[in-house]
Amino acid sequence: MKQLFSVLKYTKNYKKYVVLNIFFNILYAIFSALTLALVAPFIQLIFKTDLNEITAIANGGLEPFHFSSDYFTKGFNYVFATLILVKGKQGALILICVAVVVVTFLKNLSRYLAMYFIAPIRNGVVRDLRNKMYKKAMQLPLSYYSEEKKGDIMSRMTTDVQEIEWSIMQTLEMIFREPLTIIILFAIMLGISLKLTLYIVLLLPIAALCVALIGRQLKNASRRTKETLGQLISVMEETLGSLKVIKAFRAERHMEDKFETLNQTFYKQSVSVYRKVDLGSPLNETIVMVILMFILYLGGQMVFESNGAFAALFITYFGLASQLIPPIKQITQSYNNIQKGLASEERINKILDAEIGIHEVAQPQALLPLRKGIQFNNVSFTYKKDGEGYVLKDINLFIEKGKRVALVGQSGSGKTTLADMILRFYDADKGAVLYDETDIRQLKLDELRGRIGVVTQESILFNDTVFNNIAFGLKGVSPDQVENAARIANAHEFITKLPEGYQTLIGDRGGKLSGGQRQRLSIARAVLRNPDLLILDEATSALDTESERLVQDALNKLMENRTSLIIAHRLSTIMHADEIIVLQQGEIIERGNHTQLIQQNGVYKKLCDMQSFG
């Protein structure tokens, strides 16, 4: 039961609306029952032909208040008997009809107001959850996304969050409105006939058992369906991001088959879920109707035995009993929707409860401009966290302020991982990375990364204007500052030729620009940050000769009098580095400048020979 209502924890910021929703749901339940409750005693009195009997009831007055069905029955009888004497039967009938219309109006008004006040809860919770999940997505380490599919994460942030919205609405109704409606109906029915009501109470658990059995199956089926939807969205995301490769390798049919197979699986699972959802309500309604027919039989016998004296009350009783069907039906639907919501909640919590990995200290040290440099002090790191398979092993390296240090080595030797550790994408398992003489784990993460500029092999740009891509992540940047950064990056000339200059939209991932143009925008973005440390990760390896010349020239301007860490496969681009570090299987095996390493006639010399350089 605790798990069933766990989705209500998301409503804690909307207590005012929850209270108002509950209040009007209570009114709705009261007015729903009152509609028939008004008619019951009136029917019983209006069928009485003996005016003396009606007069005696009116003259009997009201008893002192006490909470019992007998008190309310006699109270209604007194009010209606008085009304018949004053207005006559026809006048009393008109007033009762008007009263029922008014109560019905109040019932539906209460229903609308309950839904009116639940709207901010439903949409607010969805907004809060998406904000929370997006923020958590920004905090999670890069290693998390190497194990999870982006499409599945997107599915959790969209469709699963939407299921939580429905679950909250259904839970509030299932806890307050529908049970209260049933309780009020039962209270009135008890006042009319204890015997008939006890039969209903004993038989209704059969319906409840059916709901529970279907709900358990529905939760598991819903979870599988959402997992498949996540895979489906992953395929769509991969397809849209790789259309050029798919078409070039004539893999359209392969991707279509993959998509259609997943889509067919999703179709079958969705059909199964809908069938389970749709089964609960009619099955319960059928069971309840069987119970009502049994009550109709018993009640009919009671009417025969009383020679019709019980007829008016039984008509009212049966009308009240038949009103049990809608709330029971609604509880069934709500329970099933809540089960689907619980499956979604489990998927959402996999993101919200995921270990961030990179934590900040409670009281970080002040970060001053770089004075000495960056130092790797006996650093070892592994992704597996089990003491085996180290990506970096006992790295000792000092990147002196103002110097250019290059990292070379075969793919998988640990070059990018080493650079990522300065940005604290990963933390060392052994040893420490020092900013000047301070362990970077003692610094505020945002301030640390604000001191570092990064230019990667793949130019990561956004579907926005040139200006906003250069100024990305910064506030209050002037057009002159952006233009100056673009000039240093050799980008100003081509930008001014674009249709709207710096306000030109560059398309998804900068698709409207060439590779060289995209890379120069990335460099301009790094220039604008004026970083203490510049990290260049294969910044020119994907460019043609002309673009490489322009980009390399821009990089040289950027690196002037700046501390730089350069990762390169093209050794021609790092020939003038102050120090070249050769990595192999996570270890430093050679170090020195270009001339010194050539003279050592080791791994670096072989790499140079393979590139016909040296």
CATH topology heading of the domain at 192-356: ABC transporter transmembrane region fold
The CATH H-level homologous superfamily of the domain at 192-356: ABC transporter type 1, transmembrane domain
Distance from N terminus to C terminus (CA atoms, Å) equals 74 Å
Strand content: 5-15%
**What is the average per-residue confidence, as pLDDT, rounded to a whole number?**
80
The radius of gyration is: 37 Å
The helix count comes to 20
Determine the oligomeric state from the structure: single chain
Would you give an account of this structure?
The structure is a single chain. This protein has a domain at 192-356: ABC transporter transmembrane region fold (Up-down Bundle), CATH 1.20.1560.10. Helix content is 63%, strand content 10%. The strands form 2 sheets. The protein has a 6-stranded mixed beta sheet with strand order 6-7-8-3-9-10, sandwiched between helices. It starts with 14 loop residues before the first helix and ends with a helix. The mean pLDDT is 80. It is of the alpha/beta class. The chain has 20 helices and 10 strands. The longest helix has 71 residues, at 69-139.
Summary tags:
6-stranded mixed β-sheet; 4-stranded antiparallel β-sheet; ABC transporter transmembrane region fold; about 10% strand; 10 strands; alpha/beta; about 625 residues; elongated; single chain
How do the strands and helices of this protein lay out in sequence?
Layout: H1 15-46, H2 51-59, H3 69-139, H4 142-147, H5 150-192, H6 194-203, H7 205-241, H8 243-248, H9 252-305, H10 311-322, H11 325-352, E1 373-381, E2 392-400, E3 404-409, H12 415-422, E4 430-435, E5 438-439, H13 445-450, E6 452-456, H14 466-470, H15 479-488, H16 492-496, H17 515-529, E7 533-537, H18 545-559, E8 563-567, E9 579-584, E10 587-592, H19 594-600, H20 603-610
Parallel strand pairs: 3-8, 3-9, 6-7, 7-8
Antiparallel strand pairs: 1-2, 1-4, 4-5, 9-10
Helix pairs in contact: 1-3, 1-5, 1-10, 2-3, 3-5, 5-6, 5-7, 5-10, 5-11, 6-9, 7-9, 7-11, 9-10, 9-11, 15-17, 17-18
